[in-house]
Prior knowledge:
Layout: H1 4-13, E1 58-66, E2 71-81, E3 88-94, E4 107-114, E5 117-119, E6 122-123, E7 130-139, E8 144-154, E9 161-165, E10 170-171, E11 174-175, E12 178-179, E13 196-205, E14 209-212, E15 215-221, E16 226-236, E17 240-244, E18 248-251, E19 259-263, H2 267-287, E20 296-301, E21 307-310, E22 313-317, H3 322-334, H4 350-360
Parallel strand pairs: 1-13, 19-20, 20-22
Antiparallel strand pairs: 1-2, 2-8, 3-7, 3-10, 4-5, 4-8, 6-7, 9-17, 11-12, 13-16, 14-17, 15-16, 18-19, 21-22
Helix pairs in contact: 2-3, 3-4
Amino acid sequence: MKKLYFALIGLALVCATLPTPSYAAGLPSLPDESLLTDPIWARRGFADLANRFIGRTRYLLALEVDHGRGLLLGKARVLYVNNSGVPHSEVIFRLYPNHPVHQGRRMRVSAISVDGVPSAGQLRDADGTVLAVPLSAPIAPNGTATFEFDYTITVPAGSNFFYVSEPLPIVAIYDETGWRQDVATKGLDYAYTESALYAVRVRAPSHYGTWFVGTLKGAEPHPDGTATYTIVTGPVRNFVLVQVRGWRVIAAEGANVPINVLYNGDPIGAQEIAAISAVAFNYFDRVFSPYPYAELSVIATRFPSGGEEYPTLIFVNNDRTNVYRRFITAHEMAHQWFYGIGGNDTLRHAWLDESMAQIAGYLL
């Protein structure tokens, strides 16, 4: 399997509803739906897991990073399946980039269609994180609908590092209380979502490193100095896109799957993070359950909360003592199992995954 950082380094060396905006022509095309079950995301023996999610909501996503204008341009196709057991006259989507924790980042949806018919949405909260899309006829239990969205997300212009969590409209959780529309935390663990399959195409400048949840399927360089990356995730609860410039990569030696550590700043701290990543991963992989994904990425940088977890990717603070780095790396690694593989309501029951990850940090 091609390692993500080899592909990125190689490419770097090569060099409210409004009318549909003109930038749409610059987006890569949406991935084909067949990519959702491509086995490249999976560790040996786990590829069939994706087939179990075909009868659930899936996401196809095209993104373009415009560093000059400070925009992430997006088109999303959401293949919605009503697994709630009740009919719906509207579907609620979450626009998580508008969460107040991001302090000024804005996600704006410019066009919506439902089964190819133009539609309009209504924002239901002051922050703009809840988007209701009405339906011309209710969707029965087990019924399906295809939603498409054109949108933009503001990002720091010309920055050497930024990341965008959930860079697309995501179907809200529907439980015994109805559609979940809560904004229950001012911290980073604000997204409560179901596991789903994602296939993503991202066009970004080749001199930036492009990191993400999932596995790189292919990379196509373009004459203008950009490249299009095709990504397959397998079943994951979240998606995140990371852009970096001028950072370095080291491999965690001895890990049961490839673990690559992307870092800026202290190389000794990054080496320590790489070493504990391999030890923690191998221990949890043996004691808790086998990890189903083909690889894992660790981003080591100054991080105010200490760390943050996503499926197949974690952030770890690289600006603390070695004792702290050891603990927080193990803690964030444990989240691959507690929240990632074994899910929970991270808004109302954060004690569940956080307590397990906290205990796991002391097991090594």
